[in-house]
Design goal:
Length: 364
Amino acid sequence: MQYISRLLIIASFLFVAQISDAQPPARLKKNAKQEKKAESAVAGLSERAKSQYPGVIVPDEVEWKRDVYRVLDLQKEENASLYYPVEQVGNSMNLFTFLFNNIINGNIKAYEYNLDGYESFGEENLIDLKAMLDDYRIYFEEKDGAIVVGKSDIPSAEVLSYYIKESHYYDNRTGTYGKRVTALCPVLHRNEEFSFEATKYPMFWVNYDEVAQQLAQQKVMTSSLNNVSSMSLDDYFTKGVYSGDIYKTVNMRNLAIAQYCKDSTEVKKEQQKIEQQLKDFRTNLWNTKTVAELKQDSINAAAEAAKDSIAAAENPDKKEKKVTRRASREKKTEKVKKESKPKKQKESGGNSGAAKVSVRRTRR
């Protein structure tokens, strides 16, 4: 019996092995292709991106959205993290150097900056890399069919500002308000001959959703007082650490603010107006009153409080005290004691210590 049971076990192993080897080559090829596709989809992601894949993007269908364009001046302290170090030192580099190196290596796509200032991320709008280098007089070499640009030839010191596109939206599915950067454009500031001011050249657009995973891998310093303080470039934009003025919004007339405002004063007022509109919308999601109404309510409350304090100062005798139930009870008890005290003194024979006065009648 033991011999027969061993034969049955061996036969079962052989049957299973035969079934596994009997898979058709087409199915094996298909499985291998699927595994390779899955590996390639995750191979280019960082560990942080893998844990958060898929990344956070602006939903396609939202209840409300408004797109604004800002200019980030890298000479401001809030934006200095995007500018330093000017030249790459080891793995430390600024935003432009990081984008430029990845564009040269083919890891990041760059799109043309159109004359109207709006971005388009279609394949037909991809930049011609050599043409861009020639246009901005950036020295490069070709080695084995690859473009090579030296560290000192990267014009990161001349990129003194950025244009960014910012989307503000309300997602009715989750009931949340969101703000996300969706596009980046480095702006080259170059002093041309016979020119008193630097000429600004917007170089190219970058789709933020396409580079967010790469930006999550690059750290930048965020404090001049603590050199250890740092964060990733993706966190820098996601948390809104930057500071920039609005220069354009997506509008039906396709005009920048400077195009429909007469002077710099009107431009400033329009920028403040748009900023207030964004704040008001966010506030109104959870409040029935606008920011202006809430502000007026606080002013009225302060005025009433001031009137009460003035009235109390002018009429100190009319100042009412808040009487609690316990205080009222104690006050009644004290009153009863006062009323019963003389009667007690009379019964006790007058031991109060007061002087007695007797009146004697005299007979005549």
